[in-house]
Amino acid sequence: MNTIKKISPHIILLIYVIVVLFPFVFVLFSSLKQSNIEIAESPFGFPKSFSFQNYIDAWVKAKINVYFLNSVYLATTSALTGVLLSAATAYALVRMKFVKVSKAIYQFVLIGMLIPGNVLFIAQYILVMNMGILNTHWALYLPYTAGALPISVLLIAAFMKSIPNELEEAAIVDGLGAFKLFYKIILPLTLPALVTVFIVNFLGSWNEYLLANFFISKDELKTLPTGMVGFRDAFQTNYALISTGIVYSVTPVLILYAFLQEKIIEGVTAGSVKG
Amino acid sequence: MKQTLRNPWVYVIMVVPTLVLYSLFFIYPMATSSYYAFTDWNGLSDYSFIGLQNFIDVFSDKDFLHAIRNNMLFIVFSVFVQVPLIIIFALLIASVKRLQRLYKTTVFIPSILSTSVIGILWGFVLHPNIGPINKMLSFFGIEPVFWLADSKWALPSVLIVNAWQWMGFYIVLILAAILALPKEMNEAAEIDGASGFQRAWYLTVPLIKPIISVVVMLSIAGAMRVVDIVLVMTKGGPVGATEVMASYLVNEALGVNPNYGLGTAISLIIFVFALLLTAIYQRTFGRTED
């Protein structure tokens, strides 16, 4: 009786885990199969012989390499810019002595968290069009960076508040200016929060679909989420190849997750609850 | 000494870039949205102010009303199907000692992946001919179901995929709240002979009500602006079966004949709907008795 009690939650949870993982395993197997026929014959079976040809084909012929690099490049630059800008702003708001102005600015920035992203979508489209940057990477880089600012400022400011004053005072006595104080003392101390914010912003841009779909139509500028959809529509009949594309776009995130699960979970959930 | 931290130039340099970027991409679009919504602007330079015409047009379009209905189904499904399951799974994960971390990290995975890739992935899993779901069903003698092409099945399929993607995220949120509760109460109740179910229902659930309330509100907000998964899996079809407000917006405003005035009107409607629903929820069920 007792063992049944102990085991039954595990059985239910393991079923759930299988439901979560099953599509990934299926896609991984399919990516190593040679054709739709082999997939259709035994969807759950292990590939007969490992066929890595799909990986070569998808990478070069289907331009996954282009989408992949665009995603890496856009997600990294916008996350990095977002972190640096918000760290600087958070520092000015929290540590510098302009209390009244800072309070007002802080409130002003937080308004952004009330506005759901896709409400602004059309207006941002018009803006980007008027700026003449539609169909360039700027059209994604700028909104991605801007979109991350409110939550990033909030999280980093909360962290910076907890840094004791003494450290700062000692540094000032030693003759450090406000800039040096920022990047020599405060920034290193804030590193844990910066990493969290960077990851959240990176994932946000890496996965973003709506803006990427409408602001970029040139194939060579597309990111993985939109490139993958185009890829699917183009190779609709070759599921082994599409699976390979999915594996390419999912793997980097899973590797990142394997190393930084706790950080990622903490960041992603903190971002939503406060927002 | 405090002079260092009162240097206005440093302050300005640190604050202004953020403010400029933020104002340009948040505040300014919000302002122009509220303006364009009352015009018939279609991207060309000439446009006129047409009052509430966009709103009247939208609300008299059957397709849009259908899209609203679908958004409501998303809400109903997430609040009445997903949330109870989320709570049960969170309680189950909290109740085990072994493998707890594995469960937690695994269920979270779908929520860090791109919705578009998930849409493609599930499109394949649900494929009528070579997808594993139909293969499994054929084992029981069930004819292939056209999950995404049959208007009867398309919406349920999208709802389930959406749930598959987001449930783990909320489970982890609730799990964190459960694990943060003091252990003593639970132990005392156990000594008093309360069963696992009784402890969960009478002790844990009431204590985590505030976070459940947050999860419900996040679900409502998410259901109101759901769009990526619909665009990738069905594009709103077949014949509008899975159309939601945001996909209607995309299809109408940025379609063959762009109509930005109408588009911004719809985005304002979505915004107001989301605000109203969360406000109503907070006033009625979301109240935590203190």
From TrEMBL, chain A:
Alphabetized Gene3D superfamilies for the sequence: MetI-like
Subcellular location, record wording: Cell membrane
Cellular component, GO, one term: plasma membrane
ABC transmembrane type-1 domain ranges (all copies): 68-260
TM stretches of this protein: 12-32, 72-93, 105-126, 138-160, 181-203, 239-260
UniProt keyword Ribosomal protein, yes or no: no
Keywords attached to this entry: Cell membrane, Membrane, Transmembrane, Transmembrane helix, Transport
Membrane-topology annotation of the record: Multi-pass membrane protein
A Gene Ontology BP annotation from the UniProt entry: transmembrane transport
Principal location: membrane
Source domain of life: Bacteria
Protein family membership: Belongs to the binding-protein-dependent transport system permease family.
Name of the protein in its database record: Sugar ABC transporter permease
Lineage of origin: Bacteria, Bacillati, Bacillota, Bacilli, Bacillales
TrEMBL record, chain B:
Entry's Gene Ontology BP terms: transmembrane transport
Transmembrane portions of the chain: 9-31, 72-94, 106-126, 163-181, 201-224, 260-281
Recorded topology in the membrane: Multi-pass membrane protein
Name this protein carries in UniProt: ABC transporter permease
Pfam families: BPD_transp_1 (PF00528)
ABC transmembrane type-1 domain segment(s): 68-281
GO CC terms in record: plasma membrane
Cellular localization per UniProt: Cell membrane
Major subcellular site: membrane
PROSITE patterns: ABC_TM1
Family note: Belongs to the binding-protein-dependent transport system permease family.
Listed InterPro entries: ABC_transporter_permease (IPR051393), MetI-like (IPR000515), MetI-like_sf (IPR035906)
Higher taxonomy: Bacteria, Bacillati, Bacillota, Bacilli, Bacillales
Gene3D superfamilies: MetI-like
UniProt superkingdom: Bacteria
Keywords: Cell membrane, Membrane, Transmembrane, Transmembrane helix, Transport
